[in-house]
């Protein structure tokens, strides 16, 4: 018979296996938590990268649109300059005609 208070080898083995399992489960839990944090951080950073990419595309669009607008404005400015020159010539012609008319009507 066993002496009181001394566990038999089998139950001691059982305890040590339980202890090891508990340690392993705890370590595994810690690893899972760390991994989850890492994945969340990763998804957050990919989310931020995606946002940055979208912003860049929007800015690029805005820049291209601005360039297009500037080109159109340059064309309009050129047309306006031509019209102004034409109007100026017409004004000069008409004042010449007025002078001629005055001379004729004298």
Automatic annotation (TrEMBL):
Q: Which Pfam families match?
A: BORCS7
- InterPro entries reported for this sequence: BORCS7 (IPR032143)
UniProt keywords (A-Z) are: Lysosome, Membrane
Q: Where are the transmembrane segments?
A: none
Q: Which domain of life is it from?
A: Eukaryota
Indicate yes or no for the key word Membrane. yes
Asked if the record carries the keyword Membrane, the reply is: yes
Q: Which GO terms describe its cellular component?
A: BORC complex; lysosomal membrane
The places in or outside the cell where this protein is found are: Lysosome membrane
Q: Which family does it belong to?
A: Belongs to the BORCS7 family.
Report the protein name in the record: BLOC-1-related complex subunit 7
Q: Which organism is it from?
A: Sarcophilus harrisii (Tasmanian devil)
């Amino acid at each position: 018979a066993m002496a009181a208070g001394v566990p038999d080898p089998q139950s001691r083995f059982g305890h040590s296996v339980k202890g090891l399992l508990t340690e392993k489960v705890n370590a595994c839990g810690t690893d899972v938590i760390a991994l989850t944090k890492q994945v969340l951080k990763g998804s957050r950073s990919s989310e931020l990268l995606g946002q940055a990419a979208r912003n860049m595309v929007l800015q690029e669009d805005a820049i291209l649109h601005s360039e297009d607008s500037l080109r159109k404005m340059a064309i309009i400015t050129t047309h306006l300059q031509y019209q102004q020159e034409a109007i100026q010539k017409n004004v000069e012609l008409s004042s010449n005609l007025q002078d001629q008319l005055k001379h004729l009507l004298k």
